[in-house]
Amino acid sequence: MRHVTYEQRHKPDIWNRPHISAEAAIMWDHEIRAMASSHSIIAASVFMATVLPAVLVPGFSVYGTHLLWLYSVSAAVAAVSVSVFWLLGISPPTKKHTLGYKLSRLFRSCLYFFLSCLFFHTVVILYGAPLIESALETFSLAVLLTSLTTLRCLCVLGPNVQAWIRVFSRHGAMSVWDTCLQITVAFTLIGAWLGAFPIPLDWDRPWQVWPVSCSLGAMIGYLTGLVVAPAWIHYHRKQLTYKCK
Amino acid sequence: MRVRSSVFACFILIFEVLGVALFLRGFFPVPVKSSFSSKSKLSDLPAEPLAGSPPNSTRLPQPLFRRVVLMVVDALRDDFVIGPAGSHMPYTRYLVEKGSSHSFVAKARPPTVTMPRIKALTTGSIPGFIDVVMNLNSPALLEDNLIWQAKTAGKRIVFYGDDTWVRLFPKHFMEYDGTTSFFVSDYTEVDNNVTRHLDSTLKRDDWDVLILHYLGLDHIGHISGPHSSLVRPKLLEMDDVLKKIHGSLVSKEAEGSLPYLLVLCGDHGMTETGSHGGSSVPEVNTALVLISPAFKRKAGMERPGEVEQVDLAPTLALGLGLPVPQNSVGRVIPGVLEERSLRDQLRFLHLNGHQLSCLLRDSTPDYQKEAGFEQFRVAEKAHGSWMKLYLEGNTSEVLTNMGKKVLKQYLEALAAMSSALSKQLGKYDMYSMIAGMVFVFQLLLVLLLAMPEALSSAAAVDLPVLSSLLSLPFYLLCLLLASVHVLVCTSAESSCYFCSLSWGLVFAAVAFSSAMFCILISMVTRRLPFGPAVHGKSPVRSSGGEWSLSELDVLLLAGTVGHTLSLAASSFVEEEHQTWYFLLNTLCLAVFQDVCRKYFREQRGSGDEEEHLLLSKDIRSSAHPKQEVVSEKWLALATPPFTLLCCRLLRSLNQTGVQWAHLPDVSHWINSSEHKTVLSLLSALCLLLIYLLVQRRCSLVSKVALALGLLGVYSYRAAVGSVLFPWQRSGRAASKGTVEARFVYVFVLGILFSGTKDLLRSQIVTADAKLKSRGLWEIYSGLVLLVSLLFRAHNLPVLCCGLLIQTLMAQFIWKKLHYDAAQTTIMHYWFGQAFFYFQGNSNNIGTVDISVGFVGLESYIEAPAIFLTALSTYAGPLLWACHLVCYLSSERERSPVAVGHGCYCLALLRSVPAAAYIVLVTVLRYHLFIWSVFSPKLLYESMHLLLTAGVCLVFITMEQSPGSSKS
């Protein structure tokens, strides 16, 4: 496990920071480009996961067969993010290369994934979703949220709770990818949160049915996050500074 | 003038309450009602006028009709029958053009919604908003009305259709079948359910009045508008129904007996999009067709005349030989009478005129000046002399002409009186509303502008009162506003409350408003950078740079603003509890994140500079064993999830709102008789917990009193019969529990008294902070005891969870995380709002539990009943506000101005939604749901504002002046 020092964390005074060298700038550009392309691949996968079933499965629609859409999108995002991040090699290097260690990492990742599903499920129920009725819908939403947020954390940070806590505490980002992770996760959750607002309206629209609006909100938030993250980092690259490893 | 924040906030709130009261007075016009609450009786009718001799007989002329069929088609716009679209109803069209009928465009008054329109049709009055709000608890129509009159006169009434009628007139119908308009998407079944009774009813002969109310057309309008393809078949169906009724009536017509009358009318119209409720022309214009062999046959199509919808009530009443309903403002439709003898016609008009003049006399102070009243007097005299000539056997042409003249005089008088009366009704008093709104907004702006000063460390606001009172603009503004007032009041046609106020009051209001305006201007100039620097070091600018918002602050601000905005949507008003639950959950999660951040960071980064503060604290508290610190950490971490869990459980206790109110909830389950044991155990447990939570801070005497009081609460509930006593015999009949309740009241008063005594002693004799805080907590516990008596047994968990959350949050969150007074106040406010709904309240008047007003009282006594009902309804917000006072004043050593800040924030939190809501209601005053959704919410908002003003008064007394707190 890496040891990290936190001097920078409590000194966010961006004004007194040394200038970034040209070399670093090039590296940054490279990273931002990689981020943008990976994000576009993920966004394309979401698009494909919506369009392909519509072609292949008769009677498919985002509202009508919502759970099918939800799982197809979750699976697509999960598969594509895992492969993209594995190819990019962002996940932290492992010290041991033994098969057993890798297996245990995999196992822990799966466990975290499942725990995160349960966590989201609990939170959604605390927000007022019915406890027994439509439990499947609630759990599907939790799966979607997990594959949009937790899975990404697993890809970028590995099954390492300490690192997660660091990234999600204030001024805790240590690389462009951490910032990107913060932005996408925040956008996804805010999207899902905002998605709950139309539910009490009496418009009787198909997208007001539980959990359509929330999952759509999460999806839209996620896609927005994918676009915003590289753009924001690009425009704020002068102000961003990380205490490197 | 420098005033403390709390005094300032309280002052603003009290004046806002006055402003809102003025607004409410304008928004809910007082209905025109005859001063007698009784109903018109046949024996009260005036005698036929006769000049120069004792009054003639008081008998009514022979009725016009034997049987009446009233066919109401919901949302039957005028052009569906008589306009170009009339071809959809061929039979009706034929009758209108060729048959013996009269057709009219009947103008409905807004709000064009079914229930008030039914009231208008049957009472002839124009129901005001406040009527509906006040009558929500007793849905039956108590006013004098046609149906009651008919029933009293022994007419047998049959009704099929919208069950609103059944609710309005319970036990009035000999036979009825109500259909609900609940499922708007059903437009076939709802009408078939009416028509299926028709054949058997029409065959029979045992009824006098048949009322049908068809809902299908309205439903189609709501689904797809007036031009949809569904409208045509529906109108054809209605046409067939009319044909069937008409055919049957014609076949039953017997020679010699009185004729029948068939009325086809709509209750309101619909807009081009199919909705209704407002005052646009297509919503207001409805069709009215009267068909009877008593009328002349028509040669061809004429342009239909215009009548008021309320004219139908007196017409039907006189047609059936009944007295006109007392509050009717309509006038009889003259065409209906035209085939009768002149004497009868005059007599009918006289009766109608007499009723209108009585109503006018009762409702307007200077009725003698009304033109219509005078005309009626003249006409009555002329009528008397005509009668004299008539009875003398004079049958000359002159007499007929004279009679015609009297008839014309009567008609003019009726028209004038009717319009004078209806001018007072169904209209918003816009001037009062705007005046109230201006007051409230001035105050709100002053409150907002004073924010930096009020929340500064001095917690005092510098109001430039004197300088603005002595300035020229103040006097100019006074003059301007006074002249505007005179101008508006002299030119206004309709009566206006603000104009009817006495001059002194109005002048005070004008002066106050202009003073506020001047203060506002001078405060704005002080805030602006180029303004004259009154105080060189304004607290704003010095602290402006340091203002950074945490996630929690963002959430608190966004939540407050978002909630205010959400009030514009009727669904969000109906389901406001969802908004609050949602915000509260998010708040708890945000707090959880804060707690996590604090404890995990503290644990890990022990070498950090930030930890020095905490370290120094640790040294101070190093006496504590480490065990305690760890357990405290875990308790703090567990508090937000526990709060979330509590909220989730409470939320399923009472389902409120509209959309999901029908779902089964825990309170239903627990209140059913087979779960009485569970309820008993639960309430006993809750009372025990309440005792444990509250007693900690009380003196020994209060502890004993509290324990006995809570025992009394349980025995009260047992006496009422909602819970079981373990040693109680099952056969005991439920009593009112007056003795038990009074027993509890004694202890409540005792605790309150002892608390007040402590407070006074700390204030006057010794400046002992400890004594003061104990006094406060005792008052708080007295309040808790009172609320636990008033709450129903199944609601005790709400109280219990509330106390638990308050204790935990105060212990582990607010103190430990160093939230400032503003943040704590906002959190308290949010919790208070959520608990308001946890108790089962909603924004509907119907959920107010009125039975609370009888706790401990033998009979209904108004003042305590209202007090107790208000207290139990607003128990959640009140308890949280009281907890805020106690908490902030016990935190005085940390921040001496916390109470002032809290009071200011509370005032701001309450006035922002109240002011915004006033504007929203004014904008949406013709909205379809203004009666059912927005008006009750307006009453709730005003009541809450009033209560908050009261709480702020308590704040003032609690806030020590800076001088005394130092000592």
> Largest sheet of chain B, order of strands side by side?
5-4-6-2-7-8-3-9
Shape label of chain A: globular
| C-alpha-based Rg of chain A, rounded | 19 Å
Question: What characterizes the major β-sheet of chain B?
Answer: 8 strands, mixed
Strand content of chain A: under 5%
In N-to-C order, the SSE pattern of chain A is: HHHHHHHH
Largest interface: A-B, 18 and 29 residues
The poorly predicted ranges of chain B are 531-546, 605-623, 961-967
Helix content of chain A: 55-70%
Structural class of chain B: mainly alpha
Structural class estimated from helices and strands of chain A: mainly alpha
Question: What would you say this structure looks like, in words?
Answer:
The complex is a heterodimer of chains A (245) and B (967). Chain A has 245 residues and is an all-alpha fold. Chain A is 65% helix and 0% strand. Chain A has one domain (21-235). Chain A has helices at residues 22-56, 66-88, 99-126, 135-148, 150-157, 161-168, 176-195, 212-235. In chain A, helix 4 (135-148) packs parallel to helix 8 (212-235). The termini of chain A are close together. Mean pLDDT of chain A is 82; it is low at 1-20. Chain B is mostly helical and 967 residues long. Chain B has four domains: 2-27 and 429-541, no CATH class; 73-339, Alkaline Phosphatase, subunit A (3-Layer(aba) Sandwich); 340-424; 549-895, no CATH class. Chain B is 60% helix and 6% strand. An eight-stranded mixed β-sheet of chain B has the order 5-4-6-2-7-8-3-9, sandwiched between helices. Chain A binds chain B through residues 6, 9-10, 123, 125-128, 131, 165, 169-170, 193, 196, 199-202, and chain B through 569-572, 574-575, 578-579, 581-582, 585-586, 589, 596-597, 600-601, 605, 608-610, 644-645, 647-648, 651-652, 657, 659.
